[in-house]
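pipeline: protein-struct stage 2 | run 1193 | Phosphoribosylglycinamide formyltransferase
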Amino acid sequence: MSLPLAVLVSGSGSNLQAIIDRIEAGRIDARIKVVLSDKADAHGLVRAAKHGIPTRVLPFGEYPDRAAFDAALLAAVRESGARAVILAGFMRLLGKGFIAAYRDRILNIHPALLPSFPGLRAQEQAIGYGVAVSGATVHFVDEKMDNGPIVIQAAVPALPDDDAKSLGARILALEHRIYPQAVAWLAAGRLAIDGRKTRLAPSGAPLAHMDSPCLVNPPLEEGF
Ligand code: GAR
């Protein structure tokens, strides 16, 4: 039985698109029951609608406080029948109640090699620091920001003339490969949390070809 997902977005939704595409290609054994956004103008909602996926908007400002927003978000996810939650550029912290309800079943992607540069504008933070290597991290979500056990990381070079935009584009291209891969592993029941670590059950799947200088670990499988 394919894993029913809720995907939460706040913006462009390019990671959502990458996940939709891999589901449609038969690479991820999951179905997206709903795409939720805190922003009515999030392009991710348009992407979802194009694929016949139900969408809902919960504008943060329309709730009296954070707890009320969190409760509404949780209710919407539950109503959809989702059994796991994928944060794809969702720019709000989830409340404790939400995280408790979906413990160990929420994934997030962050555009840096955590624990470096958590929080907002990670690409800008990395450029400002002058790093030579940055990347992206998919991790399970816990109560602390950008903190839960890491599922997969991909590293890319930061080039001498990079700005946040050019570095961000290089990172985003890999996000579109590692996030669908992580969702596929989750959907296949191959991820187990072991303290700070995520253990990936092996499958013997052939590995993907990588044609640009980067390091991805665990390695991507063919099709991602
Ligand atoms: C992605 O780069 C994602 O890693 C980042 O927002 C972007 C969303 O792009 N998320 C965060 O910074 C979360 N802290 P998308 O809407 O095109 O997928």
